[in-house]
Specification:
Elements lengths: L9 H11 L6 H13 L1 H22 L10 H15 L5
Helix pairs in contact: 1-3, 2-3
Amino acid sequence: MRIPSPLFNCQQATLLIERRADEVLPSTTRFQLWAHLRLCPYCRRYEEQSALIDRQARAAAQARVLSDVQLPAPARARIQRALEASSGNSAL
């Protein structure tokens, strides 16, 4: 007989860290995640990095972009080649 663990593994914890940003987790789940984060430095680091990425993405989404700014031609060509190589498609 397998006894269920009261704590999550790291894969479950990181998934819940992301879900927590979009929805309210049940209180038992929140407590289990809290306990895992107290014990696991790797998941704490993931939580910090995830929050940083979220803040940076929100700031970037709100930033004003000049309408006349264009990607340089060499960069566009490099991206085009990379897309073609990854998809086998030559047209965008």
